[in-house]
Amino acid sequence: MAPAKLNDPRYYLNRHVQWLDFNRRVLEEACDPANPLLERVKFLAITANNLDEFVEVRVSSFLQRIEHGSTERSPDGLSAEEELALVTQSMHLLVRDQYKTWNDVLLPLLAKENIRVLRFSELDSKGEEFARKFYSRRVEPMLTPVTVDPSHPFPHVLNKALCISFLLRRRRGGNGKTYFGVLTVPRALPRLLRVPSDGGVIHYVPLQEIISNYAPKLYRGYDILASAPFRITRNSNLYLEEEEARNLLEAIDSQVAQRRKGWAVRLEIEEGAHPEIIARLVSNFELDAPLVFRVRGMVNLQRLFHLYEETARPDLKFPAFSGKQVHIGHDADSMFAQLRHGDLLLHHPYESYDAVVSFLQTAARDPRVLSMKQTLYRTNTDSPVARALLEAASKKEVTVVVELKASFDEASNIRWARSFEDAGVQVFHGLVGLKTHAKLALVVREDPDGKIRCYAHLGTGNYNPSTARFYSDFSLFTCDEAITASVNDVFNFLTAYAEQPDYQPLFVAPGDLAKNCIALIERETRNARRGKPARIIAKINALVDPRIIQSLYRASQAGVDIDLIVRGQCALVPGLRGVSSRIRVRSIVGRFLEHSRIFYFENGGEPEVYLGSADWMQRNLYERVEVIFPLRDPALKQRITGEVLAAYLEDTRTARVLGPDGKFTRPRQGRNGHGVSVQEKLMRAAQLPPAAQAKRAAKTVNGALPAILTEPAHPKPEPDEGADSMSHDTFSAAV
User: 633: domain range?
Assistant: First the structure.
């Protein structure tokens, strides 16, 4: 058999369609009766939020490429125009199913639980009176109705703001001419208003219903012929010429303000809106027809977060879960002494993030600590991590690398950067053209024995205690001299562009991370050809980089068994004879967002395990500062393999398996509460009493990762025909 050409577009799935398919898997959770009802509502709101960001950034990028005349094609062979058509079609199907889920599934189920979302006309007298008072006291004073005419141009509509459009006719002197009215609903007002009700029933009414009901008071002298709520999504890509920006912070601040004014990308409007209203909006915002979304119900399902948060029905939500508290010592000396004794690995949220916060707070207050260095990509508004750094600034040297271009968190990061500067912290914003995505903290301390030592925290997730409660991530605490020295080298790279030939034992992007990952894959390939144990397991958020994909294809052809746990986009096609028949791909969607990255390489029977911040995407490998770090402690490696990866590969309830057709399906076992859920398994383990945890840990350390844990999509194959005849030169040409 002739060697496969690994750059053939048939061997790649479209990454953007794959992302939309991930959002569809989240929507499946909204449809799954095994999940509590209000959690299903929350999953639906998450899909709406995800789609907003996809439109703001990804759809906008297609339009920009088309506008600039780009001829570049995606790995699956599509032009920007073809990709836009493909994702637009997928988006329309997704939006249709979102509203079908809401209208036909969740609304009736909520009604059975005495939770109702009503039209204004459905309110009883008590609810109507409450809505009237709320409108007159809170809403009406904030409204600014506009009638579009020669002296009143079409108002600027803010990004994702809820608006109501009106088709109007003057009662006197208008000669029958129709006018267009626009009303922007203030963002300070709740989109769903809870109104009083009797008998334990919970009633909500959409704010747009209340405003539309009282609109005649705003447009006195007009007849309202038709009205329709609508919403415009704008391009939110930041246009930044960093080389020309004298002050990066000021430049980003300006760009964030401009984001709200970017050109329109999508129109959402209620199904059944008057054709003239739609025509005027499409003309004003210069939108193509495929980017108009007519929705069956209230515009913007993201507002259902409010319904979830405001409805006090714990019986309809997941049981409360708090991660196991891990205490590192009882004071500074005992904490650092414990880390000198050995590395510590935490798995969040199953083990609380409080230990990370405590580590930084203790270091900030410890007089023996000489300096602290920290990266910040995303953090919460009232961040205890940032406050610890501010506290430390008056007593020791503190350096913080704040990523100002963290999408949709720029404003918060700008505020923190200015607070740091005011407190005397040395603030850096990374390197021109490269986002700083690595999760690193370095503490330099003079210990009681007089020695200066470095202690580091390396993570897979952001320094954000809020999201750490529902993101699955890892934290490694270490004083390993090789690792801490490399962490310091990374900070020197970020603050002084002081590059090292390599950062061993760390892999650092954009330097050697991609090269090292490919080298590890190729080592497994060689081992398989020599008859040595060879296996790869990677848990990542996305796999779209062609070079990595082609390396994995070659490994499969050589006989390497490969399991990929990919939360979102996966451009690799598994199960193709002659190319990828030994590769299995699964995705886990559950209560917690799977955010950790794990890389396992069999290494001929001496396994290596790496964790880190990077996905196998071009932007992570070549356009960001990322770090992947090794687990050097044998017990920690065994914990990852025997406890964590084994559980992910055994999941039969929240997992979906990717087939060669690009579609995800559930395993044959496990639906509607049956089978194994990795997240539930890890939650149960975290709640075990200390004695049981110790027994379980000993069993994990003594155990080994089974040869194949996941049920393959196809029978286990022999090495692909033609694999041995594929030369390195052939592969290089394909790359």
Answer: 508-734
